[in-house]
Design goal:
three-stranded antiparallel sheet; 7 strands; binds zinc ion
Length: 204
C-alpha cells in the first residue's frame, strides 16, 4: 500500500518453490528408507531450498526498499506481540509462513537502514477485520475478498491488510489522513503486479 493510494503486489513464486522441494523430499524419503545417502540428499535439497528462498527475500526486500525510498518509510506488522493469539494465526493462514515473514522483515529492516529509510512496526490487530475507509466491520465476501457491512467497501484481503497497516503507521508518525483523500471507487482495487524474477510489471 503506497501513500498515493496505489497498491503493489510482487509475485515471488515462493509457494511453487516450496512445493517443488516438498515433492523432491517426499520422493527421496520413499526411495531411500534409511541410511547416510538419504540424510545427505535431504540435507542437500534442504540447503538448496533455503538458499533459493533467501535469494528471493533479498530480491523482494530490494524492491520494497526501492519503492519506499520515494516515500521515506516502510510499515511492517509487529509479529512478536501476539504470538499466542489463535485468531491471529488463523489470519496468517494463506500468507507467508510466520518464520519466513520474520526473516523477510529482518532483511527489509537491514536494507532500509542502509538506505536511510525509516521502518515502523505496527500492531497487526484488526488489520484484516476493520474497514480502512470507515472503520466498519469486514466480512468475507467470496474468495480472498472482504466487504464492509457499513459502507459497502470491498477489496482483496491483502489490499485491506496493507492499507490498514499504512494507516496505522501514519497515525504513529502523527500524520492525519482525511477520509476524502482516500480514493472512493468501490471494488476497483487492482494492485500493480511485479514479477520477482524480472521485476517488470505484469499489469497496471
Ligand atoms: Zn466501510
Amino acid at each position: 500500500s503506497l501513500p498515493d493510494g496505489e497498491f503493489v503486489q510482487i509475485i515471488t513464486h515462493e509457494r511453487e518453490i516450496r512445493t517443488g522441494y516438498f515433492v523432491k523430499r517426499r520422493k527421496i524419503q520413499k526411495k531411500l528408507r534409511t541410511g547416510k545417502r538419504r540424510r545427505e540428499l535431504l540435507e542437500k535439497f534442504g540447503e538448496r531450498e533455503r538458499n533459493r528462498l533467501n535469494d528471493l527475500y533479498h530480491k523482494l526486500a530490494n524492491k520494497i526498499v526501492e519503492l519506499a525510498e520515494k516515500y521515506g518509510g516502510i510499515a511492517l506488522e509487529d509479529l512478536t506481540e501476539i504470538r499466542n493469539s489463535i485468531r491471529y494465526s488463523a489470519e496468517m493462514n494463506g500468507r507467508l509462513h510466520r518464520w519466513s515473514f520474520r526473516k523477510l522483515q529482518s532483511i527489509i529492516e537491514y536494507k532500509a537502514k542502509l538506505k536511510g529509510v525509516k521502518v515502523v512496526f505496527v500492531n497487526p490487530a484488526h488489520t484484516s477485520s476493520l474497514c480502512p475507509v470507515c472503520g466498519g466491520k469486514l466480512s468475507p465476501n467470496g474468495c480472498r475478498v472482504l466487504k464492509c457491512s457499513n459502507c459497502g467497501f470491498k477489496a482483496d484481503r491483502d489490499v485491506v491488510g496493507s492499507w490498514n497497516i499504512r494507516l496505522k503507521a501514519l497515525k504513529m508518525w502523527g500524520v492525519t489522513v482525511p477520509p476524502e483523500s482516500q480514493p472512493m471507487k468501490m471494488g476497483g482495487w487492482k494492485p500493480t503486479r511485479y514479477e520477482i524474477n524480472t521485476l517488470h510489471t505484469i499489469n497496471g
